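We were asked to recover a plausible sequence for a given structure. The inputs and outputs are reproduced exactly as logged, with field labels preserved.

PROBLEM: sequence recovery
POSITIONS: 197
GIVEN STRUCTURE:
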């Protein structure tokens, strides 16, 4: 189901459909990552104007497409200056993320200890990524943060999820000024969609 029609939208969907037609998760992720990099650079694909509009109090999530046959969904996210996420997961779903516009800081984390509802993570280094770059997250390697480091410009990313992404776990430090050796508390977050108008 195409939520928005935009120049090149049918081409984008056809390419993503082809990439998802693989047997193994790693093959799907590799095909989608390669395809997404090509689509970002394709001048025939122009995302709708609304995905370049940010909100002052949160990053925006706008659904562009959901495949009824193959199950995957495509979400455009708009990151205002300085906006980002806490450490979070993808509810056990694979995801491929690509930077369409601007730049981001992405930090993957490994879960190194878990006691009840307390979690401890280790950073695997921060990557600065720009337009045309794409990466994948395959559980259990799904913990990460995303942040727009710019003080004055937006960033836009495209996310392809195995299914509708309606909730995730977020992890908050149990004390102020937490370091990597400190514990985090898990909270469930429901994810909403922003207007496409």
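RECOVERED SEQUENCE:
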């Amino acid at each position: 189901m195409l939520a928005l029609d935009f120049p090149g939208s049918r081409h984008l969907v056809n390419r993503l459909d082809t990439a998802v037609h693989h047997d193994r998760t790693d093959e799907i992720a590799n095909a989608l990552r390669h395809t997404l990099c090509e689509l970002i650079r394709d001048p025939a694909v122009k995302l709708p104007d609304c995905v370049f509009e940010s909100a002052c109090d949160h990053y925006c999530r706008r659904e562009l497409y959901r495949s009824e046959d193959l199950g995957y969904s495509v979400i455009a996210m708009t990151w205002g200056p300085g906006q980002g996420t806490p450490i979070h997961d993808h509810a056990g779903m694979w995801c491929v993320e690509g930077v369409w516009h601007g730049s981001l800081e992405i930090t993957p984390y490994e879960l190194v200890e878990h006691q009840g509802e307390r979690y401890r993570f280790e950073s695997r280094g921060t990557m600065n990524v720009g337009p045309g770059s794409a990466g994948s997250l395959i559980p259990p390697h799904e913990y990460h943060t995303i942040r727009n480091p710019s003080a004055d410009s937006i960033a836009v990313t495209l996310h392809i999820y195995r299914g509708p992404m309606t909730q995730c776990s977020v992890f908050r430090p149990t004390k102020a000024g937490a370091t990597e050796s400190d514990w985090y508390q898990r909270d469930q977050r429901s994810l909403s969609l922003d207007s496409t108008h």
